[in-house]
Amino acid sequence: MPRSKKGKRGSSKPGSLRQEVLQLQLSAKASPKGVRNGVKGESGASDDDPTSDILSHCSSASECTSVVEEAVGGEQVDELTAQEETEDKLKQCIDNLTDKSAKTRLAGLESLRQAFSSRVLYDFLTERRLTISDCLERSLKKGGVEEQAAAATVFTLLCIQLGGGDEAEEGFKMLRPIFTAILIDNSASVSVRQSCARALGVCCYVSTSEEGEDLIKSLALLESVFMSSYPNREGTLPTPKPGSPALHNAALQAWSLLVTLCPASRLAVLLDLHLPKLQACLQSSDVNYRITVGETIALLVELRRDIDEDFEVEDSESMCECLKSLATDSNKHRAKNDRRKQRSVFRDVLHYIESEDFTEETIRFGVESVYIDSWMRRRIYDAFKEILESGVRHHLQFNPLLRDIFGLGPPLILDAAVKANKISRFEKHLFNSAAFKARTKQRNKVRDKRADVM
């Protein structure tokens, strides 16, 4: 695209015409003194002549206007050119999804995954959502293992891009039967079933409403996957098959995300059904599954306490003893990093079960922050972070869906002056410390009132 020449048309503006008229008038009235000056002889104005100041001012104003217009025009053209180049590359990636070569299709899926996770492309994708959905459906049905797993991830990102509206719901209804078929197929690859479990959880969370039919069906399907890790009638945990702990982990994480949408009546039923069995799964041989089980227990208890402040966990002493042993686990046969991660998570779970204390976390992006101050918000944030990876902060800043989920309001529009005057890191630290202390004091007051009532 040819570069704009808007900034170089300053000579045709009224300010330049006025300058030429003044020069002609001064030339006609030139005096010998003006010629004597030598340097000023061309304009016929002396150093003391006020018209020379006018000429200088007009010339400077014209030059400044020209430079500003050229800079603004150049920025607009650069942004437009970059956007066009990006869209051309994305179109090519979409075309590659129908290529005969599996390698080309996989490369196209990987490029789309990176693009969808790193920027917001709502306008571009709204026009092409059906085409992309058809290509992803074909990959899920007929592609190899890697292609199927990548297609499930790309479709999840597509739902996040479309913002959870009718477009996302339409696409989810199209692909949910395929996710279901893969999840219940024991002969399918474990990695593909994991990707489908994550996709089912996030896409259902984004595109369905509370008490919707899709929500109930998705919860039941995910339960059927991870409940195979529950203890048998004798109370013994089954011997895990190769890869099954990772699948159970993905299914439980997706299920716990959807539980946050459940109404109070259904939540009570789910808690009574799953809490005792999940407590037994704390003895699982897989560290990641143990951690997910612990976080899910804390989430279920938190959701139940939000409904009933007087709720108490049955056999809480036994549960706390189990959590305490995991929080202080020092078995040498476990990897050092696994032990460290497990102890950190289960310390937080134990503190919450015993005293309702939650270790808060602050996620900063741009000039804003998101406070992770509950197990529910942590589960939601972790689910999107797992899919968006390093692009989660960009989406928190610009994606209306995530901003609505975390209560951030419409995306901020910051001009250069605001960006230049943003507060320093030290000032942010002071502000966040003060806010944390204020929240802690307020919560302590509420807890004191609860204790008085009890």
SS-derived structural category? mainly alpha
Q: Give the biggest sheet.
A: 2 strands, antiparallel
Shape summary: globular
Q: Compute the CA-based radius of gyration.
A: 32 Å
Oligomer: single chain
Strand order of the largest sheet: 1-2
- Total count of strands: 2
Mean pLDDT: 80
Helix coverage percent of residues? over 70%
Count, helices = 20
Strand content: under 5%
Write the H/E string, N to C: HHHHHHHHHHHHHHHEEHHHHH
Q: Report, as a whole number of angstroms, the end-to-end distance.
A: 73 Å
Low-confidence stretches: 1-18, 28-72, 450-454
Task: Report on this structure.
This protein is an all-alpha fold and 454 residues long. Helix content is 70%, strand content 2%. The protein is built from 20 helices and two strands. Strands 1-2 form a two-stranded antiparallel ribbon. β1 (361-365) and β2 form a beta hairpin. α7 (145-162) runs parallel beside α9 and α8 (166-183) packs antiparallel against α9. The radius of gyration is 32 Å and the shape is globular. The N and C termini lie far apart (73 Å). Residues 1-18, 28-72 and 450-454 have low confidence and may be disordered.
